[in-house]
């Protein structure tokens, strides 16, 4: 049975043949050009819509002039990599890349050398924007790639800050500010260079962004998100959330989720610009700065994840801030429980009094492959359909299939499949992986990898994850990635990694079950050593916060496949003891 989105098709769907830049910052707009586009939540600095358009056009021209002559051919797509946490400069750089008609490859700011090197190796950027705090990691990654024979000298590197960067290494490098790329502002500055000779269909189908998804096995893969994907999803999101009646005159977003993640990029960088609503940027989530920003700037819309709600439910600092301006909190990237939702509502409504009585908390669902949140529960259904992630946005179709791809009826549990304007073009230069993630046939039904059931009204309820991915605070962790690293440790003979859900932290935590080498005398010391060693090799979200647990043998099938379900049953029966102290020594 195929379900159709119940949302009406909005009247303001973007026309075909428009690049992301023209959709987000059109030359003609109903919004006041002098109104704030972004506000620095720490310093109060403002960048207006007019300033944003001016600077992004100038940067786009400069990027265009750096493009290799053969850019645009198959295998030579013009990729620009951005390696930075949230800053006021990030929207300028991202939209400058879009104005230049290039592809933005966005890197997790917690990546270490090997992970960054993989994304550079895979994406082959001709230009990199690097945040000053991450220069050492970049230089290590470039050195690694150079040793492999890659032509790293051809890659141009610019600082993401308004000032250049000089490295401290013996072979000193100087990276000029991205602002040195600004062209003079003239009337003939173009947008989407090289697109004039393309058809509308070709422009729609052109990649705009590469966010990397871990997939189910092995290395992360670049998800090719097109101009049409972004334009439609931002318009559909805006229409969907307008059930809350958002307004440029009274609303503000808080942009605390990372822009390099598809959820943060679409929902709190792109969508606010499309809606004409200011967004207050924070470099990262810290309770005090988050609460201060909500109170000081009278934030009305919070796009969050469950750990932020956990803070709102329990942190003592909440009582010292006026959060009564909040009217909508939307959570995604990880499941949201009823207990936590009610704790937050009860606390904030009691604290905020009459002003906070309209506050509602809902949740959304999506993947990098669906251009972020493409399903959400509208405000009017929060109480009636609690527990559901809602329904997809307008023009999407969805269904549930069994293991053989056969359609199931309402109420039956199976894999959620979707098709519509947000579904990715495919995985970057990976035809095999792309084919495997769609049902056979020309209909392009995307297999989400999530087990769900759909009720008679079309509302989706997530049951469990089919894929082996672990989601730590919304970030994907592939068990195979960690396993391939762990087996290189001299004290590990075999290993399997699973995710365990922590009620305390409202997220999954990666846990490793290890078969220790026979010469290990002290298991507790060995497991702590392994956890500490892994923490130095991987990004923060991949650390083994669920513990390192010794086990006699990894359960496997006759074909050699790890039976993770047995390990999950084991984790339920035998909670981690002192051997899992890594989960307590690493901060969440």
TrEMBL record:
Superkingdom, natural source: Eukaryota
Entries under SUPFAM superfamilies matching the protein: Acetyl-CoA synthetase-like
Residue stretches making up the AMP-dependent synthetase/ligase domain? 31-428
Which Gene Ontology terms cover its molecular function? Answer: CoA-ligase activity
Presence of the UniProt keyword ATP-binding in the record: no
What CDD domains does the database record attribute to this sequence?
Firefly_Luc_like
Keyword list, A-Z = Ligase
The AMP-binding enzyme C-terminal domain is annotated at 482-561
- Would the keyword Transferase be found if you checked this record's keyword annotation? no
Similarity section: Belongs to the ATP-dependent AMP-binding enzyme family.
Q: What is this protein called?
A: Uncharacterized protein
């Amino acid at each position: 049975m195929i379900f159709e989105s119940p949302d009406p098709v909005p009247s303001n769907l973007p026309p075909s043949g428009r690049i992301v830049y023209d959709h987000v910052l059109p030359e003609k707009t109903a919004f006041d050009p002098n109104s704030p586009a972004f506000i620095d939540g720490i310093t109060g600095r403002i960048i207006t819509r007019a300033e944003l358009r001016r600077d992004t056009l100038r940067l786009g021209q400069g990027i265009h002039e750096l493009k290799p002559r053969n850019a645009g051919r198959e295998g030579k797509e013009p990729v620009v990599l951005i390696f930075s946490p949230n800053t006021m400069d990030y929207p300028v750089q991202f939209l400058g890349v879009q104005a230049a008609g290039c592809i933005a490859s966005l890197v997790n700011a917690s990546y270490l050398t090997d992970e960054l090197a993989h994304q550079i190796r895979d994406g082959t950027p001709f230009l990199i924007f690097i945040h000053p705090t991450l220069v050492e990691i970049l230089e290590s990654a470039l050195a690694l790639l150079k040793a492999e024979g890659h032509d790293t000298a051809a890659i141009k590197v610019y600082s993401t800050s308004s000032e250049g960067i000089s490295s401290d290494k013996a072979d000193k490098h100087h990276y000029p500010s991205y602002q040195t790329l600004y062209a003079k502002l003239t009337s003939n500055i173009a947008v989407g260079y090289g697109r004039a000779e393309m058809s509308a269909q070709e422009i729609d189908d052109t990649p705009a962004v590469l966010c990397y998804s871990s997939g189910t096995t092995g290395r992360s893969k670049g998800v090719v998100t097109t101009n049409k994907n972004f334009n439609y999803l931002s318009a559909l999101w805006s229409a969907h959330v307008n059930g809350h009646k958002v307004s440029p005159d009274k609303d503000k977003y808080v942009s605390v989720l990372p822009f390099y993640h598809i959820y943060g990029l679409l929902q709190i960088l792109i969508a606010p610009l499309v809606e004409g609503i200011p967004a207050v940027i924070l470099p990262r989530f810290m309770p005090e700065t988050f609460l201060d920003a909500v109170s000081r700037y009278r934030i009305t819309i919070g796009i969050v994840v469950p750990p932020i709600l956990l803070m709102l439910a329990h942190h003592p600092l909440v009582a010292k801030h006026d959060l009564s301006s909040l009217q909508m909190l939307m959570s995604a990237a990880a499941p949201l429980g009823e207990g936590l939702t009610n704790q937050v509502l009860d606390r904030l409504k009691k604290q905020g009094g009459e002003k906070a009585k309209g506050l509602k908390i809902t949740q959304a669902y999506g993947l990098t492959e669906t251009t972020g949140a493409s399903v959400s529960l509208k405000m009017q259904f929060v109480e009636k359909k609690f527990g559901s992630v809602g329904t997809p946005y307008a023009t999407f179709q969805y269904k549930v299939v069994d293991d053989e791809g056969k359609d199931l009826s309402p109420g039956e549990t199976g894999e959620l499949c979707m098709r519509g304007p947000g579904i990715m073009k495919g995985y970057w230069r990976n035809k095999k992986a792309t084919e495997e993630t769609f049902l056979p046939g020309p209909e392009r039904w995307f297999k989400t990898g999530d087990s769900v059931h759909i009720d008679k009204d079309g509302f989706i309820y997530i049951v469990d994850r089919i894929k082996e991915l672990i989601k730590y605070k919304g970030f994907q962790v592939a068990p195979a990635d960690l396993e391939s690293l762990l087996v290189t440790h001299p004290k590990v003979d075999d290993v399997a990694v699973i995710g365990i859900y922590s009620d305390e932290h409202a997220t999954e935590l990666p846990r490793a079950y290890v078969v220790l080498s026979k010469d290990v005398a002290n298991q507790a010391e060995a497991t702590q050593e392994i956890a500490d060693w892994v923490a130095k090799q991987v990004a923060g979200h991949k650390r083994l916060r669920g513990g390192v647990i010794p086990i006699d043998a990894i359960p496997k099938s006759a074909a050699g496949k790890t039976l993770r379900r047995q390990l999950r049953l084991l984790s339920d029966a035998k909670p981690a003891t002192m051997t899992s102290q890594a989960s307590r020594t690493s901060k969440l």
